[in-house]
Amino acid sequence: MLKLLSSSCLRSKFSNCSLRAPPSSGEKSTLGQFFRSLRDSNPRILVSGKRVFFCSEAGDGSEAAGVKAGEDNAAEKVESKSSSAIVPTNPKPEDYLSVIALPLQHRPLFPGFYMPISVKDPKLLAALVECRRRQAPYAGAFLLKDEPGSDSGLTSASEIDKNASEFKGQELFKRLHEVGTLAQISSIQGDQVMLLGHRRLQITEMDSEDPLTVKVDHLKDKPYDKEDDVIKATAFEVISTLRDVLKTSSLWRDHAQTYTQYIGEFNYPRVADFGAAISGANKIYCQQVLEELDVYKRLKLTLELVKKEMEISKIQESIAKAIEEKISGEQRRYLLMEQLKAIKKELGLETDDKTALSAKFRERLEREKCPPHVLQVIDEELAKLQLLEASSSEFNVTRNYLDWLTALPWGNYSDENFDVHHAQKILDEDHYGLTDVKERILEFIAVGKLRGISQGKIICLSGPPGVGKTSIGRSIARALNRKFYRFSVGGLSDVAEIKGHRRTYIGAMPGKMVQCLKNVGTANPLVLIDEIDKLGRGHAGDPASALLELLDPEQNANFLDHYLDVPIDLSKVLFVCTANVVEMIPNPLLDRMEVIAIAGYITDEKMHIARDFLEKTTRETCGIKPELVEVTNAALLALVENYCREAGVRNLQKHIEKIYRKIALQLVRQGVPNEPSPNATTESVVIEASSGKSVEKPSESIAEGQNVSVVGSEEATSLCEASETPAEANQANILSKTPVGVVMGLAWTAMGGSTLYIETTQVEQGESKGALHLTGQLGDVMKESAQIAHTVSRAIHSAKEPDNLFFANTKLHLHVPSGATPKDGPSAGCTMITSLLSLAMNKPVKKDLAMTGEATLTGRILPIGGVKEKTIAARRSGVKMIIFPSANRRDFDELAPNVKEGLDVHFVDNYNQIFDLAFETEQEAEK
Question: Mapping DSSP to helix (H, G, I), strand (E, B) and coil, where does residue 730 land?
Fold first, then answer.
């Protein structure tokens, strides 16, 4: 941009100079009064007796520069200084018809204005120095044209300078605007050249290329009528607008004062040049003003530019005023608040809030254990807190952030206990059975003892509800002497619950893991992630993917919570997950886990659990003394076998609680105190299984002085009949002889193993009416198994009895009871074949037989899953003989001895082996 130099250094160059004012008449006296008043109002400008002046394109055609006679010594002194602003010359400016062409990148140079340029070309700089030495310090300044298709407003100044320095010779000549300015070389310091504009030039042709020299014509303004009212009005409007702008901008006032010093009085053309030169308009518009020789048109163009500048100045003023008012109001409030705090502190009423907060945060933090990268963040946030206003929203955000950062247990670990015998004792106290699960946990603790740390794979406890998955995790934490924290991710669909919210949101909070560390107060707790197979997935991301970073031992050493935004070491945290169905866990997550399956409990295990754990806990919960109630083993056995046949013990606990609630109600109704007198001889309630009723225990069998309560036999109710018998229990009570077409199968569900009955009956019979109808809410796979079973059984029946056309002429109906429950899977194939053949041959199968296995069209029996669950379900139903595929022999051998005890298990490869086992002959039966 053009710069009119008004600094003190340039003014000192002309401190010994005075300008000769033209006669104060007409146009010049009218236009000059305003600008002369501006010049005279600046006390910094000094004028002495020595006079050096120049004028650019004077209207009377006088010479451009002169030196007063008798001052040759002063002129030589000025010439000797390289920084001299005015160089006296012998030739007149109009004598220069060939000049060196200087390219201007940003704005054109107007007559009467200074412009500093940087000359990078050594040859061009040497030529300019030579011109100045020969007392011919003039050159032509021409604006460069923009490249075709380029947007000059989006191009940086450095890029423009770089491009301009690359042009030379003919290429540079083509890029120059034809109209420019004759510029006096005022000074040269290094590669910085100061130019002073004199008059307009127009390029006619190129003279030489290196450095570029062009032939020029000197342009003069077109004649105009100084008394023309339109020209006067336009000029006065320009002056009026300039006056308004000069009132708001001190920089513009400096331009006007310096201009009047060095150019003399104003006239109409100079008013137009002055307004265009000091405006912030685009260089293209300024070039148009420079090229315009018609004074009236030039004034109109300048008026448009200064009007626009006035509007910009008003907008700037309004913005500055608004900001000033806002700042002044905030400063006033800040000063008053600081004074109030100082007064309160002086009187001892209260300490500074921010100081107290900082002290609290620093006291809470153990700096020797905190990682360096966290300490750096805390120190930065504490410094930031001191600079914030307590009433600002950012203050509260920073305070909460520091609260979380300093509350975490950085480097604080609990001492672990790797004593295997101690862990064995705790596991046996809390759980009965589960030998394989306990063995795996003890192995994990043993490895931790050898390594000194208990890192490793993530443990995932899988099994049906109520088998003790959560309580096992709590027991592991107690055995290892770790803090325990549990959170459920069932139905979780927001990644922010795990990774935290970013602090840009209102009400942002850290994730579950950070909350866990704050609650437990140690950096190595045991975290139980419950229901990991029930993760949701919504619009807020995929939590399963976020859990990978949390659980993976290769990643969680630098876990990054979005709220804290600092790495947290979770490698010392022990993660235990629980799930009902492992297949529902995403594969990348499951791949990082070690699955420990908990199948469920058999009857004798449930008896021990009920006697040693559930009954004791329930009695204490109900507030009943042990002497007041006795539950026999027969009663518990009846409860387990008839009412609580599921894999877990949660339903068993509910039934025991129901029994004790009824006993508590009877005690309260009879008014029997909980603590009777020590000498009372009373009776106690005995719950037996034979009649399912409360019966009286003979009073003589009770020692005198025993603290027991009386429950009359007439008032006692049937406590064990509190719940209705489940459908599975009814089906388990099979008749003494199994009906024809009914076969027991074994199934696996998310609730554990269960028995599954297949029933087949004849609908109608007639020639070529053979068909199969299916019911029982079966899935696609199970429907296909039924069709396969129908084909296989028909082939086997034809081989056994070739003359019997039962399947060809009979419409059959196959049903799987519990129709409200969806069923699917291939393992009922062999059971369906047996049911169809039983009906076709009119032979029942053994009453204590259950089978499972997938059948193919060729009669092969394929392996199945859930062997342990199905075996336990068979034992609960009183089954003595089980048929498994041969490929599942290894799974059965791994079962505990108490699970396999009393079972007759057969392993088969094809259905012919099942046929021989299921349909025994009369001779075999007698044997």
Answer: helix
Whole-angstrom distance, CA of residue 57 vs CA of residue 267? 11
Task: Report the DSSP pairing between strands 192-208 and 179-189.
Answer: antiparallel
Cβ–Cβ under 8 Å, residues 725 and 712 = no
Distance CA 757, CA 371 (A): 63
* 94 and 133 Cβ atoms separated by less than 8 Å: no
Contacts of 267 (CB under 8 A, 6+ apart): 27, 28, 31, 59
Q: Is 134 buried (19+), middle (13-18) or exposed (0-12) by CB count in 10 A?
A: exposed
Q: What is the mean pLDDT of each run of 10 residues along the chain (927 residues)?
A: 35 34 42 50 33 34 33 37 44 79 88 86 86 83 78 52 66 88 88 88 86 88 86 85 73 61 67 81 85 87 85 83 82 83 72 73 77 88 83 85 89 86 90 85 86 77 88 90 90 86 87 91 90 81 83 84 90 90 87 86 86 90 87 88 84 92 88 54 51 36 32 33 40 64 88 86 87 91 93 91 89 89 88 93 89 92 89 85 93 85 91 88 48
**Paired tokens of 861:** 């029996």
- Please indicate whether residue 68 is annotated as part of the active site: no
- Taking the C-alpha atoms of residue 376 and residue 362, their distance in angstroms, rounded to an integer, is 13
Encoding tokens for residue 637?
A: 């056995």
For this structure, is 827 an active site residue?
yes
Dump strand ranges (E) for 397-553.
458-462, 484-488, 526-530
Of 758, 751, 694, nearest to 726 (Cα)?
A: 751
Secondary structure of 315-344 in HEC code, one letter for each residue: HHHHHHHHHHHHHHHHHHHHHHHHHHHHHH
Residue 248: which H helix or E strand, with range?
helix 229-248
**What DSSP line would sit under 493-507, residue for residue?**
--THHHH---TTSTT
Question: Helix, strand, or coil here: 15?
Answer: coil
Give first-to-last CA distance, the chain, whole Å. Answer: 119
Q: Residue 348 region, left (φ>0) first, then alpha (ψ -120 to 50), else beta?
A: left
- Collapsing DSSP to helix, strand or coil, 887 comes out as helix
Are the C-beta atoms of 628 and 675 separated by less than 8 Å? no
Structure-token pair, residue 714 = 């007439």
Q: Name residue 850's beta-bridge partners.
A: 744, 882
What are the residues facing 200 on neighbouring strands?
181
Give the number of other CB atoms < 10 A from CB of residue 889. Answer: 13
Left (φ > 0), alpha (ψ -120 to 50) or beta: where does 152 sit? Answer: alpha
Angle between helices 229-248 and 295-347 (to 10 degrees): 20
Identify the active-site residue in 28, 283, 870, 877: 870
Indicate which residue of 462, 827, 838, 877 is catalytic. Answer: 827
The region that residue 466 occupies, defined by phi over 0 for left and psi between -120 and 50 for alpha, beta otherwise, is: left
**Full-model pTM:** 0.55
**Closest C-alpha to 644, from 718, 725, 580:** 725
Sequence-distant (≥ 6) Cβ neighbours of residue 916 within 8 angstroms: none
Whole-angstrom distance, CA of residue 143 vs CA of residue 322? 39
